[in-house]
Amino acid sequence: MKKIYKKVSKFNVAVEDLLQWIENYRWMVETIEEARQPVAKVNNNS
Predict the structure, then answer these.
(1) How far apart are CA 16 and CA 22, in angstroms?
(2) Max CA distance (Å), the chain
(3) For every residue of the chain, which 3-state class applies, written as one string?
(4) Count of Cβ atoms closer than 10 Å to residue 41 Cβ
(5) What is the rounded radius of gyration, in angstroms, for the C-alpha atoms of the chain?
(6) pLDDT tens digit sequence for 4-46
(7) Terminal CA-to-CA distance of the chain, rounded, Å?
(8) What is the dihedral of CA 36, 37, 40, 45, to 10 degrees?
(9) Nearest CA-CA partner of 12 in 28, 26, 20
């Protein structure tokens, strides 16, 4: 039973790491999109 529990806890850690990575990735993409928008507006005006 303990072996199974160890595997499950390792799996849970992996899932939490994955979710954290997805959160960070989405935040990074949103930040990049926001940073690009003003540049695009300046390019369109000139």
Answers:
(1) 10
(2) 69
(3) CHHHHHHHHHHHHHHHHHHHHHHHHHHHHHHHHHHHHHHHHHHHHC
(4) 9
(5) 20
(6) 778 878 888 889 999 999 999 999 999 999 998 876 666 666 5
(7) 69
(8) -150
(9) 20
